[in-house]
Write a structure and sequence with these properties.
By secondary structure, the chain is mainly alpha-helical. Helices cover 55% and strands 8% of the residues. It is built from 11 helices and 6 strands.
Length: 238
């Protein structure tokens, strides 16, 4: 069953890539569920179309919508709670540079995008979730994770959000940068996160920074300020 499921997942990704390439860059991230036909995916995987009845079951969503076995397969596959919302390089940099915000951002976003397959799967999960109107768990989880993370990171570096900026707005701004690599890949750019020599502050050393890292650094510098009076851990404007 696992090998059959993996074959079907690979087939979904291949057909979805073809459909996005046919429709053009403006379709990136806007994948209608109707683009994916059970017969096409089964054929791509070398299986019969009835395979979805064997690997999944019809279900009723929390919104009361009835899903076929095929739709249920897509939803179960691409709303995987184990898909990381924070790229591994970012998580590693947070651990490696807890006291150096400049290096945390520079190193963490040096290659912050997920691998093409990981990123494609994650964005496809958001598209399937949104267009079925069945669940919004993925995008909500993405912002929930980052909204919890940012206040602690800022506080640990003596920073707080400028009023009236909220952690949700900060998460949206940074996620916009992170999504840039996805759009640049769709447009066919080979280097989706180029680097440049950059001095983060007048007293900083000149180092190689990725464009995404520079953008996130600028957002943090613009939307935060030094804490004038210490706050309890984790408290920030929301």
């Amino acid at each position: 069953d696992n090998s059959r499921r993996e074959s079907l997942i690979d087939a979904v990704l291949e057909i979805a890539r073809e459909k996005i390439n046919e429709a053009g860059p403006e379709a990136a991230g806007l994948l209608p569920l109707t683009w994916l036909k059970s017969e096409d995916i089964a054929n791509e995987a070398g299986l019969d179309p009835e395979v979805f009845d064997r690997v999944s079951a019809p279900r009723i969503t929390s919104h009361g919508r009835a899903l076929s076995s095929f739709e249920s397969f897509l939803l179960n596959t691409f709303t995987d709670p184990d898909v990381a919302a924070t790229p591994p390089t970012v998580s590693d940099a947070i651990s490696a540079y807890p006291d150096d915000l400049e290096e945390m951002i520079r190193v963490g976003l040096e290659d912050s995008s997920l691998t093409p397959d990981e990123q494609f799967r994650f964005h496809l999960s958001l598209a399937v979730s949104a267009f079925t109107l069945a669940e919004r768990a993925d995008i909500n989880r993405l912002f929930s994770e980052t909204e919890l993370l940012y206040p602690f990171l800022l506080f640990s570096h003596g920073l707080q959000l400028r009023q009236p900026v909220t952690t949700h707005l900060l998460a949206m701004a940074i996620e916009g940068i992170m999504d840039g690599g996805w759009l640049r890949r769709i447009y066919g750019l080979e280097d989706v996160n180029p680097t440049a020599q950059f001095r983060a502050t007048p007293s900083s050393d000149l180092k190689e920074w990725s464009i995404d890292a520079i953008a996130v650094w600028a957002i943090v510098q613009t939307l935060t300020e030094s804490i004038s009076q210490p706050r309890p851990s984790g408290v920030a404007a929301r």
